[in-house]
């Protein structure tokens, strides 16, 4: 589906030659399915910024736009079979005064303007969406008008102030107009790369959050490519920021006249692919809907698509309650009532009314008839207005931009369970499939034990009747002696007890196996997730909570709880059958309690499921906080921060406690009500049953049996309620487990060709790579980064300031992340063509802070290389200068933990671990940064030995000159790009070298 949501003609705004119908015909010819006609609001200032536009007076403003609206709707009807036309307006906001004019137009055409493209083209009358010189003149003019002195020492002061004002203007537009589409969101140009635009980016983020909160979508503008997208726009950074906030995009060509319709769409699709934009929205007519007054504008928290609204009274506004799935929001005054509005109940009581409509009515811009209309339909402080049926006029449909365009994702998909509860239930029961035989056997034993149990009331009733009629002692109805009957009953009870014991053993064994399999699968899935997901979206604490608490609840739901549910069903079925056999009348009376209890159980179970999900998430957050503090307990104690961590943990605990109290209250109400209902029913049965006994319609024994069965059935119904609520609780916990199990990592470890060192290894080349961490999409770390490692034996050291992207290069090499643009090639082939597992097996890293696991030294060196022999381990330790190992009593069998060794010893163990792999490429990430002089010397000796061997390529990230100087080549990284490259002696000898500047203090110390 091809769509544009923002197109102009020259007929009304005079931006280009051609009529509105010419633009529509061009859209049809070029294959558009959806096309938005969004004429500029005509400006009427004498100092108009566009020389091609005619001056327009206030009296012409409404007439001109009326003509556009009438023509647009004529074309919409005329070409309805060929194209979907949407009629909107583009704000073209320049000063705050324009907002008044916009509200006038919206008030006048509220039911004919189908959507608004909110664009802030200019700031205080100055255009900023042209070329660089125009922008610079705008900044200078703004500085003069704002009395901002541009100092030589801070040339960006005026630019920053200008952009801040621009972004504040954009926020004012959204607060006043709440446009469906945010147009030209990327126009805040950042021309001076060395300036700190922190305040500007904070406002960019603020505005995006605001737009996302009320359901706006963001325009990707094809016209940006003809205006120099790559020249100055920070569009890529802003797109990444919008993606990180789950924002949605629409496409626009921003055509000015028929010749520009559809231009640059090929480049736009290429850009979408480059930016990994996975979802594009299309605005469509919401069939059968009437906009009915667009001046009712959302301010906060509204979603893009909903059906109807009802309203309640609220001072200075209207609180609008939307249906399930949409959020609560506030709708702004002014209200414009129109005679054609389809009124619904209930009513809105508006205690106060904005003066803005009164101002519009008095402004002289409305005709006498319109002023009379405003007087007739204005809302006075005591008047009421029935709520209008006010859906969003437009719906949003996701689609792929064009056939053949490959779309990938920048941010890992959020964890969402299948919304279909039945599907979740099927997933839950599928976990029990391997235990099918065990569970069926357990259910068979359950039938035996339940049958024995349910035979007791009938037997007791018959015995009561027999003895109450004066039967001779020693005889029974079935011609056996009491002793024999006692033995038979005892054997029957023993059988029931044995069956029950077997059921418990089988069920609990099956539960343990199910939980074990589920934990293994969940842990395996967690280990294979994206680094970004584990570090940011979920976190180790949340994963641990899913492994422990959630999996246990799921296993219990499938076995113990399911067993209780089946037992309750069997007991209730047998009991009800025998009750109908004994007295249909009394049984019908007892069943009167079932419908209300069932409805209550259903409502309670649904509530408990939601509460369970929140509780498990709260437990995950609590575990996350505890893990974080306990893993850094030395830092916590060193900074006497225990009270702070206690407060953080207490807040999480109290949140879980509050949820538990809510669950307790709900359980108390439900079980108290069902218990009371059951007792009332028993009382009624006893009273009515007694009257039946006195009339001889039922025996005392049968009434006793029936009352016992009532207790059993009542207990079963209560058990069924508990079963349902526990099942809902299990479903809530299972969602979190299934979310993790079902999540497919973006970087798959097993996809691609197996990498073979002998066959595939060669030069490693970064070509024009750009990258930003998903947690900070607006802060690009690498920008057009290019570098080459010349095969085996080559050694390259990357130097630069902290935060310049040195470690990010290694993260990309290990495919912990993928670059947003550019390529990483190995022997001429793109790195993502190889499977991640085989590629990582061919390379190794020594991190700045190496991790040791609990175990022996030998186990730590052979980590990831389980088949290594003892001689291989010792050889790797020798190469890494791990001579301290031989001095230990147990040598390589010495037990160690995370912090059992010194920093230098841990570093050398990490080097030995890396060397044992015999990697094609060894990455050293600040391997000596935290070491004392002696430890640094020993580690550097190990590095020197590696470099001299010429058996592996080496990529060194370091600050220490003693490490850097050993590399064959040095690459200087600044601002995400390579600014200098050369051999150590060449760079040191060059007085203008950037390397020399960076290393000045260390070079002076030599």
TrEMBL record:
TM helices/strands, residue ranges: 313-331, 439-460, 480-499, 565-582, 588-607, 667-689, 709-728
Q: Which UniProt keywords apply?
A: Amino-acid biosynthesis, ATP-binding, Histidine biosynthesis, Membrane, Nucleotide-binding, Transmembrane, Transmembrane helix, Transport
| A Pfam entry, by short name | PHP
User: Where in this chain does the record put each ABC transporter domain?
Assistant: 764-1000
Task: Tell me, in one coarse class, where this protein mainly resides.
Answer: membrane
Reactions catalysed, as given in the entry:
L-histidinol phosphate + H2O = L-histidinol + phosphate
Q: How does it sit in the membrane?
A: Multi-pass membrane protein
Domain spans labelled ABC transmembrane type-1: 440-729
Alphabetized SMART domains for the sequence = AAA (SM00382)
Q: Which superkingdom?
A: Eukaryota
Pathways involved: Amino-acid biosynthesis; L-histidine biosynthesis; L-histidine from 5-phospho-alpha-D-ribose 1-diphosphate: step 8/9
Q: Which family does it belong to?
A: Belongs to the ABC transporter superfamily. ABCB family. Mitochondrial peptide exporter (TC 3.A.1.212) subfamily.
Protein name as annotated: histidinol-phosphatase
């Amino acid at each position: 589906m091809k769509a544009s949501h923002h197109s102009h003609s020259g007929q009304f705004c005079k931006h280009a030659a051609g009529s509105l119908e010419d633009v529509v015909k061009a859209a049809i010819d070029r294959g558009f399915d959806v096309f938005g006609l969004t004429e500029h609001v005509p400006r009427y200032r004498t100092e108009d910024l566009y020389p091609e536009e005619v001056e327009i007076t206030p009296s012409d403003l409404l007439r001109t736009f009326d003509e556009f609206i009438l023509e647009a709707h004529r074309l919409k009807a005329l070409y309805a079979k060929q194209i979907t036309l949407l009629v909107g307006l583009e704000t073209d906001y320049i000063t705050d005064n324009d907002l008044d004019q916009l509200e006038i137009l919206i008030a006048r055409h509220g039911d004919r303007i189908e959507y608004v493209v909110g664009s802030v083209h200019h700031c205080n009358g100055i255009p900023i969406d042209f070329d660089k010189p125009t922008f610079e003149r705008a900044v200078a003019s703004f500085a003069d008008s704002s009395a901002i002195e541009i100092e030589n020492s801070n040339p960006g002061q005026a630019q920053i102030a200008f952009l801040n004002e621009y972004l504040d203007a954009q926020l004012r537009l959204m607060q006043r107009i709440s446009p469906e589409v945010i147009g030209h969101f990327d126009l805040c140009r950042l021309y001076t790369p060395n300036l700190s635009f922190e305040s500007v980016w904070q406002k960019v983020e603020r505005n995006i959050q605001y737009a996302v909160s009320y359901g706006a979508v963001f325009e990707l503008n094809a016209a940006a490519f003809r205006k120099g997208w790559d020249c100055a726009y920070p569009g890529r950074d802003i797109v990444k920021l919008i993606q990180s906030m789950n924002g949605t995009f629409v496409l626009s060509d921003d055509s000015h006249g028929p010749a520009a319709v559809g231009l640059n769409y090929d480049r736009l699709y290429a850009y979408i692919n480059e930016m990994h934009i996975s979802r594009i929205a299309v605005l469509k007519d919401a069939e059968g809907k009437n906009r009915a007054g667009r001046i009712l504008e959302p301010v906060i928290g509204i979603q893009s698509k909903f059906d109807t609204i009802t309203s309640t009274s609220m001072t200075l506004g209207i609180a609008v309650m939307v249906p399930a799935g949409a959020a609560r929001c506030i709708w702004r005054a002014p209200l414009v009532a129109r005679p054609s509005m389809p009124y619904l109940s209930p009513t809105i009581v508006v205690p106060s009314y904005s003066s803005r409509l009164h101002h519009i009515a008095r402004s002289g811009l409305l005709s006498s008839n319109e002023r009379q209309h405003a007087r007739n339909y204005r809302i006075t402080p005591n008047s009421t207005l029935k709520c209008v049926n006010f859906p969003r006029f437009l719906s949003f449909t996701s689609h792929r931009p064009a056939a053949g365009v490959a779309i990938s994702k920048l941010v890992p998909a959020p964890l969402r369970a299948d919304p279909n509860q039945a599907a979740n239930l099927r997933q839950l029961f599928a976990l029990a499939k391997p235990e099918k035989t065990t569970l069926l056997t357990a259910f068979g034993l359950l039938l035996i034990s339940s049958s024995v149990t349910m035979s007791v009331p009938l037997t007791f009733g018959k015995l009561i009747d027999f003895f109450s009629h004066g039967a001779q002692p020693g005889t029974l109805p079935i011609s056996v002696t009491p002793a024999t009957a006692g033995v038979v009953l005892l054997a029957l009870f023993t059988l029931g007890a044995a069956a029950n014991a077997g059921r418990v053993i089988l069920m609990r064994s099956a539960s343990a196996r199910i939980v074990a399999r589920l934990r293994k699968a969940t842990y395996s899935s967690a280990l294979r997730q994206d680094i970004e997901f584990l570090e940011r979206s979920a976190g180790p604490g949340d994963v641990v909570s899913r492994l422990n608490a959630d999996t246990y609840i799921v296993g219990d739901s499938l076995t113990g709880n399911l067993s209780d549910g089946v037992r309750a069903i069997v007991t209730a079925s047998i009991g009800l059958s025998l009750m109908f056999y004994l007295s249909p009348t009394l049984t019908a009376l007892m069943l009167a309690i079932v419908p209300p209890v069932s409805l209550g159980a259903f409502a309670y179970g649904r509530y408990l499921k939601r509460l369970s999900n929140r509780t498990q998430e709260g437990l995950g957050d609590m575990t996350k906080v505890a893990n974080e503090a306990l893993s850094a307990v030395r830092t916590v104690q060193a900074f006497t921060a225990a009270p702070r961590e206690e407060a953080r943990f207490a807040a999480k605990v109290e949140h879980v406690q509050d949820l538990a109290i809510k669950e307790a209250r709900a359980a108390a109400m439900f079980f108290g009500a069902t218990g009371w209902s059951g007792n009332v029913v028993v009382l009624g049965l006893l009273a009515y049953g007694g009257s039946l006994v006195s009339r001889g319609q039922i025996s005392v024994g049968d009434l006793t049996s029936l009352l016992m069965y009532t207790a059993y059935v009542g207990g079963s119904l209560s058990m069924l309620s508990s079963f349902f609520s526990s099942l809902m609780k299990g479903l809530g916990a299972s969602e979190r487990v299934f979310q993790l199990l079902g999540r497919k990592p973006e970087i798959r470890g097993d996809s691609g060709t197996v990498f073979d060192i002998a066959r595939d290894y060669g030069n490693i080349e970064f070509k024009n790579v750009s990258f930003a961490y998903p947690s900070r999409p607006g802060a690009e770390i690498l920008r057009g980064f290019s570098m080459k490692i010349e095969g085996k034996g080559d050694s390259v050291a990357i130097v630069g300031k902290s935060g310049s992207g040195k470690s990010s290069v290694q993260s990309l090499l290990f495919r912990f992340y993928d670059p947003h643009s550019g390529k990483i090639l190995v022997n001429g082939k793109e790195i993502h063509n190889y499977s991640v597992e085989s590629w990582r097996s061919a390379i190794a890293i020594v991190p700045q802070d190496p991790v040791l696991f609990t175990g022996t030294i030998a186990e730590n060196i052979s980590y990831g290389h389980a088949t290594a022999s003892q001689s291989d381990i010792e050889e790797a330790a020798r190469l890494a200068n791990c001579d301290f190992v031989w001095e230990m009593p147990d040598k390589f069998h010495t037990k160690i933990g995370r912090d059992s060794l010194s920093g230098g010893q841990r570093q050398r163990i990490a080097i030995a671990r890396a060397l044992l792999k015999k990697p094609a490429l060894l990455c050293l990430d600040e391997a000596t940064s935290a070491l004392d002089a002696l430890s640094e010397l020993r580690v550097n000796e190990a590095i020197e030995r590696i470099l001299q061997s010429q058996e592996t390529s080496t990529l060194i990230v370091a600050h220490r000159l003693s490490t850097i100087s050993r590399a064959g080549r040095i690459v200087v990284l600044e601002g995400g790009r390579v600014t200098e490259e050369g051999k150590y002696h060449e760079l040191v000898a060059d007085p203008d070298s950037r390397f020399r500047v960076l290393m000045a203090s260390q070079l002076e110390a030599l």
